[in-house]
Amino acid sequence: MEEKKKVLYSAVQPTNNLTIGNYVGAIRNWVQLQSEYDCYYAIANMHAITVKQEPALLRQRTLELLALYIACGVDPEQCVLYVQSQVPCHAELAWVLNTITYVGEMERMTQFKDKSARHAENINMGLMDYPVLMAADILLYQADVVPVGLDQRQHLEITRDIAVRFNNRYSPTFTVPEGIYRKVGAKICDLQDPTKKMSKSGEDPNGAIFMGDDKDTILRKCKRAVTDSETEVRYDPDTKPGVSNLLSIYSVMTGKTMDESVREFAGKGYGDFKLAVGEAVADVLIPIQQEQKRLLADKAYLNGVLNRGAEAAFRTARKTLSKVYRKVGFYQGDK
Ligand code: TYM
Prior knowledge:
The protein is built from 13 helices and five strands. The strands form two sheets. It has a three-stranded parallel β-sheet with strand order 1-2-3. The protein has a two-stranded parallel sheet with strand order 4-5. By secondary structure, the protein is mostly helical. Helix 3 (55-71) crosses helix 12 (270-296) and helix 4 (89-98) packs parallel to helix 13. Bound molecules: ligand 1. Residues 9-13, 21-22, 24-26, 44, 47, 134, 137-138, 146, 148-149, 151-152, 186-188, 197-198 line the site of ligand 1.
């Protein structure tokens, strides 16, 4: 008999334009892991509305993100690809998990504090509850592993805490998931301020390379990237954050090891180095953009993927949810 694969869960929010940070920290790894695990990849649109979104744009970005997943190499025949809001179990489980999560814990979340500062006019309950919904996402599918960037580590830790807490309070119900963080690329930094993570919503648009940027823009942004006053291309994130960040990007985009990448630029100046980084990024992004465009022209195909995905996700999620409802004592008729 074929051995049952372990379950992998991950998601991206369909907000703004994705950056190469999202690609390197998440989607690229999904592709590498998809044959090894039973994979669920969601489009986290319920998380997205915790900050203000333009409804028409959110709808459009949902399909664009699906096309991007597939264009990056995520295989819809092998993985379950779906939209979070199409599986009602996520909101339902989040409600139950809310009752075993403490306000103080949520107030201490770094991302909540950051986003509250950035959106001071809109510190809504959903923003605070974001990690609980994320825990619900992961736990519904009994995920063993969750590949994410380092900025999500705290959310994954709280997911583990919530799972253990529920299991202890009721009885073993949830698999306690492990995060998968890659050594290189788990935190791609801003090109203008390499001490900060590259973000979809950063202040300086030159700090981020977006998945939709054309080649000229990519080359220009790399050329302008902040480095240091030395001349040596060397990996040392503490003293050379700018150069080290560019080296990480180069290494991931070319598939070369860090040692190989460093050796390649021995004796070369920053100008040549930045140009090579830009070329490497463009070589990966341009074909993805072309494929994404091709896929977006076939809406019927994309909708088919999402319909199948939502059904498959629902089948799994419902099993966990009804177990949870039984454990907490919700009356479920004569089922
Ligand atoms: P989002 O959309 O903010 O980020 C999506 C993924 O991209 C990673 N990431 C980065 N990785 C490396 N360097 C960066 N500069 C960088 N910026 C972003 C994030 O770590 C993430 O893996 N809350 C999640 C979405 C989500 C989710 C889930 C993830 C909802 N439910 C369940 C895993 C499991 C998020 O941060 O999305």
